[in-house]
Amino acid sequence: MPKTIRVLKNRLLKAGCVCENTKGSHTKWSHHLLVNKLILSGNDGADAKLYQEKQIADFLKEITEAQ
Prior knowledge:
The chain is α+β, with helices and mostly antiparallel strands and 67 residues long. The chain is built from 2 helices and 3 strands, in the order H-E-E-E-H. It is globular and about 30 Å long. The protein starts with a helix and ends with a helix.
């Protein structure tokens, strides 16, 4: 069963990411150790697509490597 967008956002928050700004259903996430940003789209209750889960996993991996 796919995770919801809300679960992915909670994972980013627990990793220390900050939501910079939102426009509609798009949110821009950043972390103080990384230069690049992540844009996540979708409403909180919607199921996340497979590519979104992979993007989050890769972003969190970059954070752990930078620490």
